[in-house]
Amino acid sequence: MSAPHAELPPCARQPERPDTPCVAVCSTTFDEICRGCGRTVIEVAHWVAMTADQKELVWQRILAQGYPRRNT
Fold this sequence. Notes:
By secondary structure, the chain is an all-alpha fold. It contains 2 helices and no strands.
């Protein structure tokens, strides 16, 4: 059996990430964005059904915005 992602070029491999960006600081009091993880309410609700590519797009956006945050 080959190594994971062995057939993909390095630029096509997705980085190792936790299963979820959730940091148990859940709050959407003032808008639709969680203060802890940076996901929208819809993204949180649909996370388990999202594809790896969809999740990666969310990860890229929230990391660029400075999330996840443990102390908010």
